[in-house]
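Trying the structure run again after the queue cleared.
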Amino acid sequence: MGVLTGKTALVTGASRGIGRGVAERLGRDGARVAVHYGRSEAAAKETVAAIEAAGGSAFAIGVELGVPGDAEALWEEFDRHADGLDILVNNAGIGTTRPITEISEEEYDKVFAVNVKAPFFILRDGMGRLRDGGRVINISSGLARTAVMPDNMAYAMTKAALDVLSRDLSKVLGARGITVNSVAPGIIDTDNTAELLHGSADGWERAAAFSALGGVGTPAEVADVVAFLASDGGRWVTGSWVDATGGSLT
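Done. Tokens:
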């Protein structure tokens, strides 16, 4: 029996990358997983199929985030499949790599709408669905704690805001035994980092050099950290910022 058997989890942005890795891991641990996607239904169905092929249970819900009414629409979809929630992983996010002198107000507003506003209101509207003893895990970034990539400034600001949300919400939900934490990956090998890692002959080596472990992380490695926080073993960790950068901040 898996350590999360009988639990229901929702992972936003779970059709690919870190979100898919987290969804698959929680599914292997026994949770029934709501696989949220914003655009690619086919990719979300692939994640669901992978979870089911490994003996787990999952369902897909499609809602665009960063638009008015997104949280309400997400929970409406979720409620069609489940009557409560034990684990919420706010993973969905978009990036922007542009100097402060070039970023537009529209681009700035969009990245904050998806990365900060959406999880804030997903949590606001979801707290009544979250069972006592539950888990909230927000996917942050090592860039919230370092200035090595200043062209990612707006993105890093959104992740710092998410860290404040984790810290403060832990006080709000603590009386119910619900933990709230941020997990901060470093450079992870996903579609979003393909240009950085593979766009030049030495891209991978330069990225690996950031890590004290001398490598580039995988979605599965971040998922392992999330799985610990989601398990009973993580019950005494809350309001924390968990460094999952492979030592990139040392």
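The first strand starts at residue 8 and ends at 11. Worth checking whether this holds up in the mutant runs.
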